[in-house]
Amino acid sequence: MANHKSAKKRIRQTAKRNAANSYYHKTARNAVRKLRAMSDKKEAAKFLSEVESMLDKLTKRNIIHCNKAANLKSKLAKHVNSL
User: Fold this and answer.
1) Considering only Cβ atoms within 10 Å of each terminal Cβ, which end of the chain, N or C, has fewer?
2) May I ask the CATH architecture of the domain 5-82?
């Protein structure tokens, strides 16, 4: 266990960040699933931009790798175009 005041603070900060990051990650994953399940092209195209924005924010926060976000965005765009 932490002995220093700064180490205890660091533990608190890390726990708070982990909770926030896992929330953003889970929300984005659910949005990707929702987009893949859509069958209406117009609605899916509108939702695609929101999902891409979520993925970009995850990349910016270093929650997912930039290449993973790029692959997901590419596959989702292909899916929307094929509807």
Assistant:
1) N
2) Up-down Bundle (1.20)
